[in-house]
Design a protein that fits this description.
single chain; about 850 residues; alpha+beta; Phosphorylase Kinase, domain 1; Transferase(Phosphotransferase), domain 1; Rossmann fold; 6-stranded antiparallel sheet; about 50% helix
Length: about 850
């Protein structure tokens, strides 16, 4: 397309001339509405209006090109929400209506403390609305109007926003309209990214017609102003504009008209911050300039890179600038967009022996270790036997391979855990997409075929960035040699990836012994059944492990399997404490046969932590299990709780984060992470983590319980009652007691009525949790009965008792009986944490 003013050639879909910024073509009415406040009349909802029978309008709080926002009361949950409506005069545009709903689709998929929470999407009189979190505070734009922010405040808010956007980018969502007016700041200084109305889902259809440029002009990236293809780097530019605006108190690209602003974005450099604010640190200005680099390839490539450098500036370190990262990527031939962002900067720094200053390692507790250089996922082996009943074999061998590879080197290799890879078992998702979802740069996939007593495993190693097969091999042996096959395969992968095996691992790999095929097969069946964590399956798993020991009485994994069966029964309340010693006996038998059994050390650590409260012995076992398999996601997840019980929750947080990194689609680990955040009294973050768990598994019990804990901690009784009513709705006896108690005695009456029901059930079955009964009596305000039941829990060695150190038990903290109980269990007192 030729510019009518300077006659320069432009792309056909360009809106502005890339040379002189003259508008090209005639914008549609829709285009005009997207960069300014709507001028057409908008139907106004009056205060008191009822929406969908459950939202009462309180007041209008804002309006813009893509909607009108009201503050409303959620009558059911008794909380304030923000309701966003599509303007009535745009109702007839299917495209705009669809784009409006994309906002909800995009934002509802996100769970992060720095992103506004979407509660629900609905329609009122055929007018779609989004019910979202009501954020008390002011927009960042209004805050800046009062004057430039101090560098410390600007950096803190920018780091928070970058964290939220980084999470969106990891989910394939680009905001495309980042501006100070779309960022709320609470009274406590928490930033919340709002309005995903222009968001584009990676892989989804674009709702933008040719020659339509979305966004607000002053914050547009050059590629966005030209109408080009966009990726996450457009958000990085816009975030750079916002950061400049915070520090300078004015925009980096200004003009009286859109055309002038666009020209400045395409051709001019921002005024030096040192000139505007002489006290600005040089490193901060360099980071902002890097974010505002006009050439996309030279800009920060990921929001995480940007965030890391902002954190480095905030901590007084010299950041690792994106230009140097880009140079190293070109040398290595790596495309960082396909790598896990945090790993990329650290991996390159390790390879080149560079000092990355403020980029601290969050996984290994700041001990100077680098992030693993290789991120690997082992996809479920395809079962080529033709017999679906043999799935346990292919799944079991996959699990063994994950464990085998995970033990190779604590710093050189990170291996994704079972739960997250099993989601790809039945699908045909492309390798590059799997790599992006799991944040890995290599994928090992293959197949298993069995004929009588012989087994054949075919494996290939694929580099994600270009989907190139870099190694493949086939192994065929008698089933008795399966351990040697796995060892040989692991060593081959390590060699290809240049992962150096530690001496102890080299020795272990070299000593792989043969197994009794029937014992091995029975063990795999038992292991598959045990993971169901249901009473009948646990019985079947026990029989399988016993069959394995009947074939080979010295088979250590089967003893470890029996220990896990009895531990599961204990945690599920199926058996009393009198049966608990079986866990320890079987675990010790496994270790007597094979001291290097990571599973035996972990099950023993769990038993010592939650049944025996032998903290010193338990920690020794946790650390040995992690030494044997640094990639043990389950070990990291539960060791984090051990540390939290001991008053070391900040240390435990790093292990929780490691567990999620190793198994990102494991709902349980997100829920366990929420509990650690509760220990740290980061209640809003804990709720966000619980929501992340429920996004994966809506029935995740620990995640669901976090809502009760949150409401209790915050004193939100109405919300707690509504949640409680929903949770017990399928228990006629409890719901009847709840409603009767509520009618007769209010909140405390409802809790006491439920406590009485649970107490009666406990007396009928000694396996019922006494802690659960105590919890309800505490909510009823009856501290005496609460303590009676907590001491019953102590006598029962109740698995839940170590969690009475959490903040929702705070009403007991001044009670000497409670303090005495903490001492008995070995939990730290408040003044010791």
């Amino acid at each position: 397309m030729e510019c009518p003013r300077c006659h320069a050639e432009n792309n056909e879909d360009s809106r502005f001339c890339s040379s002189c910024a003259t508008p090209l073509g005639k914008p549609s009415p829709e285009q005009a509405s997207l960069t300014m406040t709507l001028e057409a009349p908008i139907h106004v909802l009056k205060p008191g209006s009822l929406i969908s029978g459950k939202f009462r309008i309180l007041e209008e709080i804002g309006r813009g090109g893509m909607g009108v926002v009201y503050k409303a009361e959620d009558l059911k949950l008794k909380r304030c929400v923000a309701l966003k409506f599509l303007p009535s005069h745009l109702m007839d545009s299917p495209e705009l209506k669809e784009r409006f709903l994309v906002e909800a689709q995009a934002a509802a998929a996100l769970s992060h403390p720095n992103i506004c929470v979407i509660h629900e999407v609905g329609e009122s009189g055929e007018c779609p609305y989004i019910a979202m979190e009501y954020v008390e505070g002011e927009t960042l734009r209004d805050r800046i109007k009062r004057g430039p922010l101090k560098a410390e405040e600007a950096l803190d808010l920018a780091i928070q926003v970058a964290g939220g956007l980084g999470e969106a980018h990891r989910k394939g969502i680009i905001h495309r309209d980042i501006k100070s007016a779309n960022i709320m700041v609470t009274d406590k200084g928490q930033a919340k990214v709002m309005d995903f109305g222009l968001a584009k889902l990676r892989g989804g259809s674009s709702l933008t017609r040719s020659q339509t440029t979305l966004g607000t002009v002053a914050y547009m990236s050059p590629e966005q102003a030209r109408g080009g293809d966009l990726d996450q780097r457009t958000d990085i530019w816009s975030q750079g504009v916002v950061l400049y605006e915070m520090v300078a108190g004015k925009m980096p690209f200004r003009g009286d008209h859109d055309q002038t602003v666009i020209y400045a974005i395409l051709h001019d450099e921002p005024e030096s911050l040192k000139k505007v604010r002489p006290e600005t640190a040089p490193e901060l200005e360099r980071v902002i300039r890097q974010a505002l680099t006009k050439k996309v390839a030279d800009r920060y490539q990921t929001m995480e890179e940007f965030r890391e450098d902002l954190a480095a500036v905030a901590e007084g370190f010299r950041p690792l600038r994106a230009k140097r990262r880009a140079a190293r990527r070109r040398i290595l031939g790596l495309d960082v967009i396909h790598l896990l962002p945090v790993a990329s900067a650290l991996v390159l720094a390790v390879l080149f022996g560079l000092n990355v200053g403020g980029l601290r390692n969050r996984v290994f507790g700041g001990q100077g270790r680098a992030e693993p250089a290789v991120e690997l996922a082992v996809l479920p082996l395809k079962n080529l036997t033709g017999d679906p009943a043999q799935e346990y074999m292919s799944d079991g061998v996959t699990e063994e391979m994950i464990a085998q590879l995970g033990r190779l080197h604590p710093e050189g290799l990170s291996v994704i855990a079972r739960t997250s890879v099993m989601r790809y078992k039945k699908g045909e998702m492309p390798v590059d997409q799997i790599g992006r979802e799991l944040g890995v740069n290599y994928i090992l996939e293959g197949s298993l075929q069995r004929e009588a007593a012989r087994i054949r495993i075919t494996a290939e190693l694929i580099r994600v960035r270009d989907q190139t097969q870099i190694w493949a091999d086939t192994y065929e042996r008698e089933l008795s040699g399966i351990l040697a096959v796995q060892s040989q395969l692991a060593q081959s992968v390590a060699k290809v990836l240049a992962v150096k095996l530690l001496p102890a691992e080299q020795a272990r790999q070299a000593s792989a012994r043969t197994v009794n095929p029937e014992a091995y097969e029975a063990f795999l069946k038992g292991f598959s059944l045990w993971q169901e964590l249901k009473a009948p399956e646990l019985d079947d798993a026990q029989r399988c492990f016993e069959v394995a020991l009947g074939k080979d009485h010295s088979y250590a994994p089967a003893y470890a399997g029996l220990a896990w069966v009895w531990l599961a029964r204990r945690k599920m309340g199926i058996v009393p404490y009198s049966e608990a010693p079986k866990v320890k006996a079987f675990a010790l038998q496994a270790l007597a046969l094979d001291e290097s059994s990571q599973q035996a050390h972990e099950v023993l650590a769990s038993f010592l932590t939650w049944s025996e409260w032998d903290w010193a012995a338990a920690e020794k076992e946790w650390l040995r299990a992690l030494e044997l398999n640094p990639n043990g996601a389950n070990t990291h997840a539960y060791y984090a709780h051990f540390l939290a019980h001991r008053g070391r929750a900040a240390e435990g947080l790093k292990h929780s984060e490691r567990a999620i990194k190793l198994d990102p689609f494991n709902a349980l680990y997100h829920a366990l992470y929420a509990v650690v955040l509760q220990y740290l009294r980061r209640y809003d973050d804990a709720l966000a983590a619980a929501r992340a768990a429920l996004a994966i598994d809506p029935k995740q019990a620990i995640a669901l319980s976090q809502f009760q804990r949150y409401y209790l901690t915050k004193g939100m009784r109405e919300e707690q009652l509504a949640d409680q009513r929903m949770r017990i709705a399928d228990d006629p006896e409890r719901i009847a007691a709840f409603e009767r108690g509520l009618a007769e005695g209010g909140y405390e009456g409802a809790q006491r009525a439920i406590a009485d029901v649970l107490a009666a059930r406990y007396e009928k079955s000694q396996y019922y949790s006494a802690v659960g009964v105590a919890r309800r009596y505490l909510d009823a305000g009856d501290k005496d009965r609460t303590m009676v039941w907590l001491y019953k829990a102590y006598e029962d060695h109740d698995q839940s008792l170590p969690y009475i150190g959490l903040s929702d038990w705070a009403p007991l903290r001044g009670d000497p009986r409670y303090q005495a109980l903490l001492r008995r269990i070995g939990l730290p007192l408040d003044n010791e944490k």
